[in-house]
Amino acid sequence: MKNAIMTGFVSASNTSYKVELSFAGEGYNGDFDKRDPDDEPLLRLDVYEKAEYDKRCWSMEPVESACTELSAKVSKKEASKLADKLLLAVTKYASPNRRWDDIVSSAIVAVESGKI
Fold first, then answer.
1. pLDDT value for 55
2. What are the angstrom distances between the C-alpha of 41 and each of 44, 46, 70, 82, 97?
3. CA-based torsion, 73, 85, 97, 58: positive or negative
4. CB–CB of 23/71 below 8 Å?
5. Which residues of 74-105 are buried (b: 16+ CB within 10 A; e: fewer)?
6. pLDDT, averaged in runs of 10, over the chain (116 residues)
7. CA angle centred on 98, ends 93 and 99, rounded to 5°
8. CB atoms within 10 A of CB 48
9. What is this structure's pTM?
């Protein structure tokens, strides 16, 4: 069902970061409008890092959350592949000298453009 909107979420993680992709009701102009033929349901990316208080746990809240321009009309398998790519990109761009919004926007652009 290629036109079905993904439900739930998918995640990918390594020893430092976890990313989650989900459909949170967003589209090109804010809330997704299924009546608008030019609108598209978009995936939201949440990024977590290890908790300050216990490095065995992920932070309770994402360190950054952003709407992507990646369609939510994907299977869980396709979304998992996107999550893997986004995790690679977040890990590549993460640096103590960069703000999280910059890291995440760079990761999203890299995946959307096919560079990762």
1. 85
2. 10, 16, 8, 15, 33
3. positive
4. no
5. beeeebeebbebbbbbbeebbeeeeebeebbb
6. 83 96 96 95 96 88 95 94 96 93 94 91
7. 110
8. 21
9. 0.91
